[in-house]
TrEMBL record:
<keyword id="KW-0560">Oxidoreductase</keyword>
<dbReference type="InterPro" id="IPR003953">
    <property type="entry name" value="FAD-dep_OxRdtase_2_FAD-bd"/>
</dbReference>
<protein>
    <submittedName>
        <fullName>FAD-binding dehydrogenase</fullName>
    </submittedName>
</protein>
<keyword id="KW-0285">Flavoprotein</keyword>
<dbReference type="GO" id="GO:0016627">
    <property type="term" value="F:oxidoreductase activity, acting on the CH-CH group of donors"/>
</dbReference>
<dbReference type="Pfam" id="PF00890">
    <property type="entry name" value="FAD_binding_2"/>
</dbReference>
<dbReference type="InterPro" id="IPR014614">
    <property type="entry name" value="KsdD_DH"/>
</dbReference>
<dbReference type="InterPro" id="IPR036188">
    <property type="entry name" value="FAD/NAD-bd_sf"/>
</dbReference>
<feature type="domain" description="FAD-dependent oxidoreductase 2 FAD-binding">
    <location>
        <begin position="2"/>
        <end position="525"/>
    </location>
</feature>
<dbReference type="InterPro" id="IPR027477">
    <property type="entry name" value="Succ_DH/fumarate_Rdtase_cat_sf"/>
</dbReference>
Length: 544
């Protein structure tokens, strides 16, 4: 097993439970066990769940399939296996996924989130209903049952961890993969997520009847991100991007597999976010945190003009990214007030949600109180991308001071805010963003804890005013190594490479890119769970 992240742990425990002996190699130290899943918010995509039904959310496999296909927009010959993986995953998410995870001890927050809510129309990308189920314990809570099972297998001798072992190549014999080779790195005491030493102290070779690659994506390697950046679709890559993953998410194993004959497809499909903040308390270099916004903030370009509809907060990440990068914007702005940030701002990541991560019910219930959540308040107090002022002229002056190379005109910003606020004098109005806000509040959980009641941004009672400078944040690879429905890696002509499997982000979460061009969210951890289980079970069957 090459990679000790979530997909690797799932596959390894499936193999160990089937009686196989498993060696798990990872270039990082034991402190990074679990990989990127540890840092995640722990959201899982489920279809027609009890949590949805209790909130009056009517979902179905047919509706979810329609949402997935319009969002993925599969349009290439290489999408043959990704399409089949998408269909298999939808059945999993509507079927045994929740029951399987619940048996392992996983539980979910009762309010279901509405990520990627779209807004451009019924046949356009996005979730028609909320489907983002937040795990109690966030990312560490998702990892917990698989780490526990892996450590138990290690105690009984069925599983061995080999940390600080960086795989650099595959060993092949007679056209089949029969093992791996690589370098032993010196021990490192770097904390989880921090850059670790790359000093080589030796080399290794291990043979095995099956090799499963679960080595993750490329988001921490900005050179590789830029190499694969689809300039024809998105325009030039931004000159500055913050990094949503540590530097060791480098894509090197994916390149090594490609050099050994594995077919890498859809490498130009990426999932980067438009709402990145520079972390005021970083763990890794250039550490970015994503805002998970509700739909009410005004989204402005660098000059202070409102982004055209349907580019609204929480709408369609890729489409808004394309608008921003094609326009050459170095940054954008959210403009809001204290009432909106209190209700609608969440921050992605386990470390930014200590109440949910720590399973602290009392602290979690405080989210319904009057105070801004402490992690958000910390960014308001210390974040380099936040401007907090009492009046609009003061706010615009502060925004210009933060980006003097892109000054904002007060009259332009004031017109955008006042035009929006005037639409609130009547229960309807012609502002489509406000129509989406009102529609979202038809769901109980959106109304109670996620979406603010429509109100004028300039109402002094809801102040102070807040502007948030947003950067593009690198995160996920949507493409990857092409695999069949057993997780077996394929050559360019579609031939199976005997002995080689892949799961998780290195395989585009299934098939080489089961998301297509866009994700519905909650499908990254879910893709690691599903593809890791598939590959582990298939390898166990093949090595009986």
């Amino acid at each position: 097993m090459v990679g000790a992240g979530l997909a690797g742990l799932v596959a390894a425990t499936e193999l160990a439970d089937a009686g196989r002996r498993v060696l798990v190699l990872d270039q990082e130290g034991e402190q990074n066990l679990g990989g990127q899943a540890f840092w995640s918010l722990g959201g899982l995509f489920l279809i027609d769940s009890p949590e949805q039904r209790r909130l009056g959310i009517r979902d179905s496999l047919d509706l979810a399939r329609r949402d997935w296909l319009t969002t993925a927009a599969f349009d290439r010959p290489e999408d043959h296996w990704p399409r089949q993986w998408a269909e298999a995953y939808l059945h999993f998410a509507a079927g045994e996924k929740r029951a399987w995870l619940r048996r392992l001890g996983m539980r979910w927050f009762p309010a279901v989130g509405w990520a990627e809510r779209g807004g451009a129309g019924a046949s356009a990308p996005g979730n028609s209903v909320p489907r983002f189920h937040l795990t109690w314990g966030t990312g560490p809570g998702v990892l917990e049952p698989f780490e526990r099972r892996a450590r138990e297998s290690a105690r009984t001798g069925r599983l061995t961890f080999a940390f600080r072992h960086r795989v650099t190549g595959l060993i092949q014999s007679g056209g089949a993969v029969t093992g791996v080779r690589g370098e032993v790195l010196e021990p490192s005491g770097a904390a989880r997520g921090e850059r670790s030493s790359r000093v080589v102290t030796g080399d290794f070779e291990f043979g095995a009847p099956a090799v499963i690659l679960t080595a993750g994506g490329i988001g921490g390697n900005h050179d590789l991100v830029r190499r694969h950046w689809p300039a024809d679709r998105l325009g030039p890559a931004p000159a500055f991007m913050v990094s949503g993953v540590p530097a060791h998410v480098d894509g090197l194993m994916q390149q090594a597999a490609q050099a050994a004959g594995a077919h890498l497809i859809n490498a130009d499909r990426m999932w980067h976010y438009t709402e990145g903040l520079r972390n005021w308390n970083p763990v890794w270099e250039n550490h970015g945190i994503r805002v998970l916004p509700g739909p009410s903030s005004l989204w402005l370009d660098p000059s202070g003009r409102r982004l055209p509809f349907p580019h609204i907060p929480g709408g369609s990440s890729l489409d808004t990214l394309a608008h921003i990068t094609r326009s050459g914007y170095p940054h954008t702005w959210f403009l809001l007030n204290r009432a909106v940030i209190k209700r609608e701002f969440a921050l992605s990541g386990s470390e930014q949600n200590p109440d949910l991560t720590g399973r602290d019910l009392r602290m979690t219930l405080r989210r319904a109180g009057k105070a801004v959540q402490p992690p958000v308040q910390a960014f308001m107090d210390h974040g380099a991308d936040f401007v907090v002022r009492g009046t609009l002229p003061e706010l615009v002056a502060g925004m210009t001071a933060l980006t003097p190379e892109h000054p904002l005109d007060l009259a332009t910003v004031q017109a955008e805010v006042e035009d929006r606020d005037l639409q609130l004098r009547n229960p309807a109005g012609k502002d489509p963003q406000l129509a989406i806000v009102r529609g979202a509040r038809a769901f109980l959980n959106e109304r109670l804890i996620r979406v603010a009641k429509p109100a004028p941004i300039l109402d002094p009672a809801d102040g102070p005013l807040i502007a948030v400078k947003l950067n593009v944040l690198t995160r996920k690879s949507l493409g990857g190594l092409e695999t069949d429905l057993h997780g077996r890696v394929l050559r360019a002509g579609g031939e199976v490479i005997p002995g080689l499997y892949a799961a998780g982000e290195v395989a585009g979460f299934g098939g080489g890119g089961y998301h297509g061009y866009r994700a519905l969210e909650g499908t990254f951890l879910g893709g690691c769970l599903f593809s890791g289980r598939v590959a582990g079970r298939a390898a166990a069957e093949a090595t009986r």
